[in-house]
Give the backbone structure.
Amino acid sequence: MRSKIVIILTTAILLYVFPACDKEDRIPYVYVNFVVYPDLPEYVSIKTPGNFVYLTGGVKGIVLYCQFTDEYLAYERNCPNDPYQKNAILDVDSTGLFLVCRNCDSKFSIYDGSIVESPSKYPVLRYQTYLDNQALYINNYN
């Protein structure tokens, strides 16, 4: 009887401990669904390719980047390397070509969110964008 209890307890501990070792911190999910109107004065600069604006939304904010005329990319500002660190926030660097983490110095391409310099193992979280006339929709649902 005692050996059965030891086996059950050992199994329970192993099932509890080992999955925790494999757990990787990912950016927490938050619902994103809003509209930006690029013709409004506060967003008119975003109509020029290569320009960006910081928006409120997502987990720690969103970078909205104009890739080409009428083509926009929206990225989460929460660094995917260690998203639960308070200062794990991505900023566009002075060249306007990269997103750089304030906390770990991971560097990502602003063109596609891919990793340029580690330590991050994951690319930047990208939100969907859709331009319909004068309304730019940003969301994270299919």
About this structure: Residues 50 and 68 are 8 Å apart (CA to CA). Residues 26-139 form a domain with the Rieske Iron-sulfur Protein fold (CATH 2.102.10.10). Strands lie at 33-36, 52-55, 62-68, 71-76, 90-92, 98-101, 107-109, 115-117, 126-132, 135-139. The chain has one domain: 26-139.
